[in-house]
């Protein structure tokens, strides 16, 4: 090969390596987060709140003429009690609108008498509460001052992937604006914080005082609201949780427009589908949400949904786990019909349901319970199941502290290490159904279980009620 050809070949190789390096840099970690932080930090705020503690200490008593008497008279209120002490707390937030709307966590401002918002330039503003939503731990404040204020925009959290780089900005331990970086560790986390849990997990350092602050994409858009940490010591160990922006944005917009959050509701009580329950129902896998109770005259009841149905899909969204259904329903439109896919008695069917607005907690508490079954006196022992049941009478109602109008079949004894014990049955449970068939007497219960066993079933699905809460249990049947 001629010398000129060698030179040209090395030039081509060198350009290729350079292009690969540039591409890797463009797709990987940037050389600095400074440009992003400089652009968004002015919209991240520190939040200081004060509230009075309700407990008041009595004024100490001294003998007449004591030199301490006058001192404590000045220190205490005129009613003889110590002034309620004021408690200060700190958190974070971010401005989403040039008019001065601030997003933070509900627990940051809950019970606050005064709220002060401190901006990046140390300017201070009083703030009022526009609305708050304890179910998602979100709140919206309004700055009392002339705008326009610096603000940030929301990201589409559905586009955020596990492994993406992210930046968190907040007010840890009251130190003022602090920046940390990390990656998105997981999504869809349920930390038992509320009925609509769907958290991002991030490994950026998040500590006390970061609550309510934003998690940013590298484009400088908010994809999460930092809410909680998991830590035995109460400080960062690299496990933080953030509310996805697509959930937060809907809540925030509703709070600003209406002062409250409007959510859809279908009127069912649900439970998890275990592998044993799936087998009892003939379902191919443990999926969906099992309907344990239906609110009378609610949207589900009007649509024809029954106890024992398994909701497999709501509209075009499959329900893989029970906890997904409340969130999917809440995000749907009130008054707009939705097709629900169900599993019932070994078949898939579709019903149309029109969600209503979620009633208040007080209204839900007033909803009536299903009519109890009439009583028939009887008792039955099932040694192979380790189970003894009886018809309810006054003595059993008193023994198990059940309502005076409670009727039907009640579990009176469960043998240790028996199928009934393994299923979780306990004395005082009322058995309402066996394999979706109502049972009113102990003989009916025995007959249903025997029919299931003769049909070659390995499990029977029982609907039981404990302390007023219905739930399904899968009872292993004895072999022939």
Task: Spell out the blueprint of helices and strands.
Elements: H1 3-27, H2 34-40, E1 44-52, H3 67-75, E2 86-95, E3 101-104, H4 106-109, E4 114-118, E5 124-133, E6 138-143, E7 165-170, E8 178-189, E9 199-202, E10 214-216, E11 222-229, E12 240-244, H5 245-258, E13 264-265, E14 268-272, H6 275-281, E15 289-294, H7 299-303, E16 310-314, E17 317-318, H8 324-331, E18 338-344, E19 347-353, E20 356-357, H9 361-366, E21 379-382, E22 387-391, H10 394-399, E23 409-414, H11 419-423, E24 430-434, E25 437-438, H12 442-454, E26 459-466, E27 469-476
Antiparallel strand pairs: 1-2, 1-4, 2-3, 3-6, 4-5, 5-6, 7-8, 7-10, 8-9, 9-12, 10-11, 11-12, 13-20, 14-15, 15-16, 16-17, 16-18, 18-19, 21-22, 22-23, 23-24, 24-25, 24-26, 26-27
Q: How would you describe what is shown here?
A:
With 480 residues, this protein is of the alpha+beta class. The chain folds into four domains: 40-143, Thrombin, subunit H; 157-258, Trypsin-like serine proteases (Thrombin, subunit H); 266-366, Roll (Pdz3 Domain), CATH 2.30.42; 379-476, PDZ domain (Pdz3 Domain, Roll). The chain is 23% helix and 32% strand. It contains twelve helices and 27 strands. The protein has helices at 3-27, 34-40, 67-75, 106-109, 245-258, 275-281, 299-303, 324-331, 361-366, 394-399, 419-423, 442-454; strands at 44-52, 86-95, 101-104, 114-118, 124-133, 138-143, 165-170, 178-189, 199-202, 214-216, 222-229, 240-244, 264-265, 268-272, 289-294, 310-314, 317-318, 338-344, 347-353, 356-357, 379-382, 387-391, 409-414, 430-434, 437-438, 459-466, 469-476. The strands form five sheets. Strands 21, 22, 23, 24, 25, 26 and 27 form a seven-stranded antiparallel β-sheet that branches. Strand 5 (124-133) and strand 6 (138-143) form a beta hairpin. The longest helix has 25 residues, at 3-27. The radius of gyration is 30 Å and the shape is elongated. The termini are far apart. The model is unreliable at 16-26 and 368-377 (pLDDT under 50).
């Amino acid at each position: 090969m001629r010398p000129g050809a060698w030179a040209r070949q090395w030039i081509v190789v060198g350009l290729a390596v350079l292009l690969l390096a540039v591409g890797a840099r463009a797709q990987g970690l940037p050389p600095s987060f400074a440009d992003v932080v400089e652009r968004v930090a002015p919209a991240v705020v520190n939040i200081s709140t004060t509230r009075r503690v309700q407990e008041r200490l009595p004024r100490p008593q001294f003998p007449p003429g004591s030199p301490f008497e006058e001192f404590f008279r000045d220190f205490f209120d005129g009613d003889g009690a110590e002034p309620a002490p004021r408690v200060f707390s700190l958190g974070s937030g971010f401005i989403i609108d040039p008019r001065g709307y601030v997003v933070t966590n509900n627990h940051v401002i809950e019970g606050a008498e005064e709220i002060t918002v401190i901006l990046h330039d140390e300017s201070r503003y009083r703030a009022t509460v526009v609305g708050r939503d304890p179910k998602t731990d979100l709140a919206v404040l309004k700055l009392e001052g002339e705008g326009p204020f610096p603000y940030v925009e929301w990201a589409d959290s559905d586009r955020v992937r596990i492994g993406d780089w992210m930046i968190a900005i907040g007010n840890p331990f009251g130190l003022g604006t602090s920046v940390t970086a990390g990656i998105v560790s997981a999504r869809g986390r349920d930390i038992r914080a509320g009925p609509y849990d769907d958290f991002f997990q991030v490994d950026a350092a998040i500590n006390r005082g970061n609550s309510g602050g934003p998690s940013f994409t590298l484009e400088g858009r908010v994809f999460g609201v930092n809410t909680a940490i998991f830590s035995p010591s109460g400080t960062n160990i690299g496990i933080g949780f953030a509310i996805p922006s697509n959930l937060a944005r809907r809540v925030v917009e509703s709070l600003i427009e209406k002062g409250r959050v409007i959510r859809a509701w279908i009127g069912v009580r649900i439970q998890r589908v275990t592998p044993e329950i799936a087998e009892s129902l003939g379902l191919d896998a443990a999926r969906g949400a099992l309907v344990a109770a239906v609110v009378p005259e609610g949207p589900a009841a009007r649509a024809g949904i029954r106890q024992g149905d398994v909701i497999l899909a709501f509209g075009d969204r499959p329900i893989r786990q029970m906890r997904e259904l409340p969130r999917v329903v809440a995000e749907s439109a009130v008054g707009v019909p939705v097709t629900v896919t169900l599993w019932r008695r070994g078949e898939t069917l579709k019903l149309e349901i029109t969600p209503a607005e979620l009633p208040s907690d007080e209204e839900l508490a007033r909803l009536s319970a299903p009519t109890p079954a009439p009583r028939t006196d009887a008792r039955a022992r099932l040694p192979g199941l380790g189970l003894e049941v009886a018809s309810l009478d006054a003595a059993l109602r008193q023994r198990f502290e059940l309502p005076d109008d409670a009727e039907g079949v009640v579990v009176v004894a469960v043998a240790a290490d028996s199928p009934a014990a393994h299923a979780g049955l306990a004395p005082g449970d009322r058995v309402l159904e066996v394999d979706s068939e109502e049972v009113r007497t102990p003989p009916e219960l025995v007959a249903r279980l025997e029919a299931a066993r003769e049909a070659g079933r390995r499990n029977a699905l029982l609907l039981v009620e404990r302390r007023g809460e219905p739930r399904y249990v899968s009872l292993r049947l004895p072999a022939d």
